[in-house]
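debug: dumping io for the single-chain case to check the tokenizer round-trip. Nothing else runs in this session.
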Amino acid sequence: MSGPRRGAVLPRSARTARPSLVVAVVAVSVLVGCGGSPAPDGRPDAATTDGGHHAEPDTPAGTPASAGAAARDRLTGSDLAWLQLMIPMNDRTLLLLDLVSESTDDDALASFADRLAESHRTELEGLHALREEAGVPDTNPHEGHHMTGMVTDGRLAEVAAEPPERFDTAVIDLLREHLEHSRLVSSGLLDAGSDEEALALAESQVERRDDQLAELSGIAEPPGPRTPEG
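debug: decoded output
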């Protein structure tokens, strides 16, 4: 999936053409993580996106009815699904980044983790401000879900238990998954969202994730030694 070029402003009709795009990505992540099955076209069954319970149209799986009602005047289902996924994804990733700072012997990875943590905290400030302005309750509808890109307690424990020679690789793999999936969902919001503040936050995150993924790749695969000339 590719978003618009940097700095581009999509017309409202283009942004609302696929209002369930982000909702579908979130719901599929939950279903796959919890052992459910998406519909044949890869999207969740709209009637059973929440463990067999009927969901409101364009309402993310697991979102409390009160949250949807509170944000109805401002946030679409896609806006709300993105917001309520990005906050716990960033929160949980900070736990991994703290572990990296304490445990890695790789100076480049430690420095990257510190800068990534600072960036994620800055993102959280904007996300929490939007949540408060929209009147969305401070709840996590994805609590306990094993979702793509989410640093769960189990995955964090697995990384912490890795032997030193495997620790950095396990961290890099989990960080790459988180960065790629958060970029995917934020890129989807640029097509499907409607709230201008949410779109601005998502666009900034897409650009930031591109830079972060490029830097992470450099750490994972550092350039080889230069061969002497002639």
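debug: round-trip ok. Residues 15 and 192 are 5 Å apart (CA to CA).
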